[in-house]
Amino acid sequence: MSSQRAPTADLGDVTPARSRHQGRRSAVTLTDGLAVVGTADGDLRAFDVSADSGPPRPCWQYDTDGEPSVVAAVPFDVGLVVGERSVRGEIRCHDADGDLRWRYDTGTDLGEAQQETRFLLPFVASLATDGDRLYAAARRYERRTDADGNDLRHFESVVYAFAPDGTVDWTYRTDGSPISLDADDGRVAIAYNRCPGDHQHGLVVLDAADGDPRWMWDPGTDGQRRVGDVALLDDGAVVSSHGDYCGYRLDSGGRERWRVPLATPTDVDGDIVYAYPNHVHATEVGAVFVTGNTYPEEGRETEARHPTEHTAVGVSPDGDRRWDAPVGGFASGLGTDGSLLAVPGAQNFRDRDADDHALRLFGVADGPIDTLDTDGVVTAAAVADGTAVAVEEPVVYHDEGRERGAYRLHRVEVENETARSRH
C-alpha cells in the first residue's frame, strides 16, 4: 500500500477542531464528475474533479443563511440532497448546477431546541436513496429530569420518504436516536444507536412503499446503546452492534446467521476497555466494520488502548475474519462505491498523533489499497468511479497548541481492480 499526497482546493476558513472531536460539521458527495462539499457554515461548494481537470476546479457555490453546518450529502435525481445540523434541521435538494429545487425544515416536526447548543440542535443524521425516493433520518436530543431528580436522555426523531419533487410520501416517528439509513430493493433500514424511551429496537426495516415495519432486531443487551450502522443485502442485513461491540449478519426477518466479536471488553494491563463498532459496509463478497475510540468500563479516562480500536475489519460472507488494518482515528462516516471504501480518519483524542491523519482506502475482500496523508484531520469522504475525495479540517491539540492542516478538499484517483468492481 502506498502513501501519497493529492491535488487540493481551498474551502475557506473554519475554526480548528480541538482534541475531542466535535461531531460532523462537513460533508462531501460525488455526482457526475463534481465533488460537492457541504461546509461548516452551511454553504455548498462544487468542484470539477474529473481525471483531466488537475486540482479540483471551483464550479459553483450556494450560500445559505443562519448558522447551520452541513452534515450529510448524497446524489439524488440528477442533483444532490444535503442535510443540516441547525435550528431548522433543514434538508435541501439542489440541481447539479447548485440551484435550489426544494427544502424541508425538520425542526417543525422535531420541536425547538432546548438550547441553541450544537448537540441539542435538530440534526439530519443520515440520508439514503434507492433511486426513486430520498430517505432522511432526523433527530433532536434534549436532557430531562425525572421526579427523583435523575438526568434523562430524550430524543424526538422522524424518518422521511421524499418524492423527487419534495413531497413527503410517508414518515416513521419514534423516541429513539437514528444514526444511519440504508435503502435498497423496496426496503429502508434504520439503525438506532440509543433507545432510552419507548422505542426498544436497534434495527427497524421498513417497506419503502408505505413506511410500514417489515421486521425489527435488537442485540438484546442492557442499556440504551443498540446499533451503530446497517448495510442491506439482498437476503438480509449486516449490522454493527453498540450493545455488545460485535458485528452481525441477519437473514430477512432478523434471524442471526453469524456474530463476530469486534472490540468487546478486554483486559489491558488491568483495565477493562472496549470500543464501539461505528460503521459497516457490505456486499455479496463480504463486509467491513470500522471501530472507534477506546473507552473504559469504569469512568471515562484510561491509559489503556483496546487492541482493535480505530480498526477496519474485513469479514467473509460466512463470517470469517479475513483482514484488519488501522484507520488512524475516529471515522465520522464512510465513503463507499461497490466494494471500495474510503475511511476518513479524524482525531484519536487519547493519543493525538498527527502522523495518523489520513484518508485510507480499502477493498471489501482484500483490505488496504492506498493512504492519502494529510496535515489536519479528515472528517468526510466520498468515492465513485475510481475517484475518491476527502475533506480535511485544521486541528489544534490542547497539549500541543500548534494548528495543523487547513480546510480543503483532496482528490485521489484509485488505481486498483477494486475501483472497477461494482459488486
Order of strands in the sheet with most strands: 1-31-30-29-28
Strand elements, count: 36
In the CATH hierarchy, the third-tier topology is known as Methylamine Dehydrogenase, Chain H
- Provide the low-confidence segments as ranges: none
What is the count of distinct domains? 1
Q: Specify Rg, calculated over alpha carbons.
A: 20 Å
For CATH, the homologous superfamily is named as YVTN repeat-like/Quinoprotein amine dehydrogenase
Second rung of CATH, namely the architecture: 7 Propeller
- CATH top level assignment: Mainly Beta
What class do helices, strands and sheet pairing give?
mainly beta
Organism: Haloarcula hispanica N601
Biased composition (Basic and acidic residues): 298-309
Region (Disordered): 1-26, 298-322
Protein name: Transcriptional regulator
Secondary structure layout plus pairing:
Layout: E1 2-4, E2 8-10, E3 27-31, E4 34-38, E5 44-48, E6 57-62, E7 69-75, E8 79-85, E9 90-95, E10 100-105, H1 107-110, E11 123-129, E12 134-145, E13 151-162, E14 168-174, E15 177-184, E16 187-194, E17 203-207, E18 213-217, E19 227-233, E20 236-241, E21 246-251, E22 256-261, E23 266-268, E24 271-283, E25 286-296, E26 311-315, E27 321-326, E28 335-337, E29 340-345, E30 358-363, E31 367-373, E32 377-384, E33 387-393, E34 395-396, E35 403-404, E36 408-413
Parallel strand pairs: 1-31
Antiparallel strand pairs: 2-36, 3-4, 4-5, 5-6, 7-8, 8-9, 9-10, 11-12, 12-13, 13-14, 15-16, 16-17, 17-18, 19-20, 20-21, 21-22, 23-24, 24-25, 25-26, 26-27, 28-29, 29-30, 30-31, 32-33, 33-36, 34-35
Provide a descriptive summary of the structure in words.
Residues 88-266 form the Pyrrolo-quinoline quinone repeat domain. It comes from Haloarcula hispanica N601. The chain has 423 residues and is mainly β. It has one domain (2-420): YVTN repeat-like/Quinoprotein amine dehydrogenase (Methylamine Dehydrogenase, Chain H), CATH 2.130.10.10. Helices cover 1% and strands 54% of the residues. The protein is built from one helix and 36 strands. The strands form nine sheets. A five-stranded mixed sheet has the order 1-31-30-29-28, with no helix packed on it. A five-stranded antiparallel sheet has the order 23-24-25-26-27, with no helix packed on it. Strand 13 and strand 14 form a beta hairpin. It is globular. The two termini are 22 Å apart.
